[in-house]
Structures are given as C-alpha cells and as structure tokens.
Amino acid sequence: MCSECGCGHTKKILEVSSKILEENDLQAEKNREHFSRHHILAVNLMSSPGAGKTTLLEKTADLLRGEFRIGVVEGDLETSRDTDRLRARGVPVVQITTGQACHLDAFMVHEGIHSLPLEDLDIVFIENVGNLVCPASYDVGAHLNVVLLSVTEGDDKPEKYPIIFRSADLMLITKTDLLPYVDFSIERAVKLAKTVNPSIDVILVSSKTEEGMEEWLNYIKKRLGA
C-alpha cells in the first residue's frame, strides 16, 4: 500500500508493471521463434548514447559484405539519422522512432521485422535506444544480447548499471583507439562486469582502427554456426 494513505496505489502499479513485462516476454518468445524459423541470428545491441553502436554496425556491414546478409531494426527517440547512415551502405533498415519511450520492446520489434526482407537475411541487428537502464528490462526476442561500453564513459559503468550487464551475453569495450587519452582501466571494467555477470564474454574493439573487429565477427559467425 501507499505509505502515506494506504490506498494500494503501489501494489496496483506493481501489478500493471508485471503484466506488461509478462506480455512483452510472450511476444519476445514469438519474435525469437520467428527469427529461428527464418534461420536468422538476432542480435540486440544496447548501450548509452554515443557508445558507437551505429559505427560498429557500419563497419560490421562492410566487413561481412558478400559473406553474410544483415538487416537492422533501428530504434531512436527522434530522427532517422542512423538509419540513413546504414542505408547508405546498402543495409536493409527499418526505423522505429519511439518518441518518449526509452527502449524498444518486443511488440515494436515485431512490427519492425515484418518490414525487413527476412528471407534474404542471415543476421538482424536490433539497435536499441541509447540507454543503460530501460533496455535491460525488456526482452526483444533476440538470440544474443550485447552491451557496448566505450572507454570515454568510464570503467565503473558495470557497477553503476549492473542490470544491463547482467542481461548481456557479451560486452564490447569500444573506442579503444582513445585509450591513451582517457582515464579508463580495462582490467577494472572487466572485473566489475564479471562480478555482476561471471559468464559475460568481453571483446575490445575499435571501429576506427578495426582492432578486435575480427574477434567480434568470429563471435557472431560462431553463433551462426558458420
């Protein structure tokens, strides 16, 4: 009950929130089954704004071209700027503009994937809204959850935002070409991530220098069974 008036509002809010998440999880499982039926690996990319998700996808698309066919579900509060960047590289993209919503959910992704040529794709990347909090609570139906942590953000983020690192299969430490110019400890970031999620994998990447890109691509290929 509400601590001030005993009206039961808090209980009601929790019940509604629980129902929303339950319905989302059911749709997420349907999304996952839909991807699997089309023999598609679905990858959910999560990070704070500016960690390098779109740049990583641009470089990934370039390096996989001719080997694997990728599509993208692009989530942003406003603008189609990131979608335009990926389309310029010949990547099929569907834009989801969430307005005030701080994450993608399974229903949004369900609507989005039906605008992609799934029969012609091997991988669908879901670029979630830039946020280290909300996306962790909503299963979107991906097979693989990846969280990006850029060296410009600080190495304490796994400790400050544990839920998103706990929900991830892989942590990509991005923008490693900037390490000489920032106060960021790789060892500390990995230790903190492993503390909240002992099974999380870690890869260091730079989309600019291509450091770690081969390891990242091999990780994806392994999940594809290639």
Short description, anyone?
The chain has 226 residues and is of the alpha/beta class.
Characterization of the model:
This protein has 226 residues and is α/β, with parallel strands linked by helices. The protein has a single domain (9-224), classed as 3-Layer(aba) Sandwich (Rossmann fold). The protein contains 8 helices and 7 strands; from the N terminus they run H-E-H-E-H-E-H-E-E-H-H-E-H-E-H. The chain has helices spanning 9-37, 53-64, 81-87, 106-113, 157-160, 162-166, 186-196, 213-224; strands at 41-46, 70-76, 93-97, 123-127, 144-150, 170-174, 201-204. A 7-stranded parallel beta sheet has the order 3-2-4-1-5-6-7, with helices on both faces. It starts with 8 loop residues before the first helix and ends with a helix.
Radius of gyration: 18 Å
> What is the CATH class name?
Alpha Beta
Structural category: alpha/beta
- Helix tally equals 8
Number of domains: 1
Low-confidence stretches: none
| Order of strands, widest sheet | 3-2-4-1-5-6-7
Largest sheet: 7 strands, parallel
H/E element string?
A: HEHEHEHEEHHEHEH
End-to-end separation in angstroms reads 54 Å
Indicate the overall shape. Answer: globular
The portion of residues forming beta strands comes to 15-25%
Roughly what percent helix?
Answer: 25-40%
Q: Any idea what the CATH superfamily is called?
A: P-loop containing nucleotide triphosphate hydrolases
The chain-level mean pLDDT equals 93
Extended strand count: 7
In CATH, the architecture is 3-Layer(aba) Sandwich
> Which fold name is given in CATH as the topology?
Rossmann fold
